[in-house]
What we know:
The radius of gyration is 22 Å and the shape is globular. It has two domains: 15-145, Sandwich (Dex49a from penicillium minioluteum complex, domain 1); 242-482, Pectate Lyase C-like (3 Solenoid). The protein has no helices and 45 strands. It is an all-beta fold. It is found in: Secreted. Keywords: Carbohydrate metabolism, Cell wall biogenesis/degradation, Glycoprotein, Glycosidase, Hydrolase, Polysaccharide degradation, Repeat, Secreted, Signal. This is Glycoside hydrolase, family 28. It holds the Pfam family Glyco_hydro_28.
Amino acid sequence: MVYLVILSCCPILTAATYIxxxxxxxxPIPSGVETMDAYSIKVTPPQGSSHWIQPFQARVAQINETSxxxxxxxTSVGLFDFSGPIEIAITYHHAAVRTGVVRPYSYGIRxxxxxxxxxxxxxxxxxxxxxxxxxxFDTLQLLMNPIETKVTRADDPDVLYFGPGLNNGTAGIINGxxxxxxxxxxxxxxxxxxxxxxVFQNVSNSAIKGRGILAAKSSGAVLIESSSNxxxxxxxxxxxxxxxxxxxxxxxxxxxxxxxxxxxxxxxxIDLFCCRDALxxxxxxxxxxxxxxxYQHRWAYYGDSSNxxxQNSALWADYAHPINVGTHGNTPHPxxxxxxxxxxIDILNHHEPQIGYQGCIAINAGDGNLIQNVxxxxxxxxxxxxxxxxxxxxMYNTKYNTSPGRGIRNVVVKDLIYEGNHASPSLLxxxxxxxxxxxxxxxxxxxxxxxxxxxxxxxxWYSSADFVPLFANEHVHNLxxxxx
Length: 484
């Protein structure tokens, strides 16, 4: 039997993460979580015995374009920890395997398929989607962590500990809500299932961490308001009835290594409102609305945003945008979003029939917002279903805005690669002479292997943007395509 060895599918992890060779750690499926039988998963370290991973159920959504209703689908999730290398054998039981792929494609994993079993090897933990016969719903999301080296103790006075099982902890959950004080960490152990909204309000130096599952069946999963130095790390957020993570008017928010699934309406992944110094790193999101949304004023959130980084992540948007910047703001007292970095992202899907809400990466300034100094780099976009590659607009969407935005300026998009044939033309639309888009530079933009450059070989009367294709209106100034 031959296995492919992948040197690294998650380069942000290092050897220092691991406690020793050939270690695999699995967790029981807690009560309240449905199991799935579409896939069998066997994990084998070179010098050890095999481990069988029991998949559990997540729900994902498909839009009914006639009624607008959501069509929900069951999908499979496998979760375990390891220190490499390991060999993985996955058997599919619902149909004969004609094709099988491992995504993101950028990881370079080309599995061997023997009958109905897909086999490959890994050196490091990462998050993968196993897709059989081009079915995007009956997939296996394989979520892997490095083995924890620091033991979190249940008797630590600074820890609100939830062990294996349903709500297996002593911290008080009141009406489905767990309020976290300053200086405390909620820890959900592997095999643990916490059905509550975890709330950080007017606190500092607090966290939720662990290898367990956070559900919040009656609300959004994590709410951060008017707080500082808050960390959300590693937990799997499973089908909350709202956003996976909401942060408003907060500073020093770190969202690290989480994985989230949603299927309900307004099932956003991570939404930040008026936040500063925020880091989103190493996540996997599959949601029924925007995976990541960076907003200004809405509801009771006010103030400028600055220094926000999204990196090293994989995004799958069954509805709406993988990344959405702008939209909401404060017309009477206009706000600024300054300094957004988006880098090393794999976009696995984008499916949005509404033209006004398309864009794998959307920057849409409304409500008097000024969005400036945005750096986007190392973005790999796979062949998504329906939508645009990018959509940058100064807009007045009367459903959500009370005025147009002020402008978008100083945006660099570097090393964006798209391989596919389903993208509609991208749009760059300034609003008017007073509300333009200025200084937009695409560096090393590749569309199906073709480098888009102002000096590319083309008919002299063509625009380089035609080869994206991308339309920019008369209120877009200093748009350039360069390569280096």
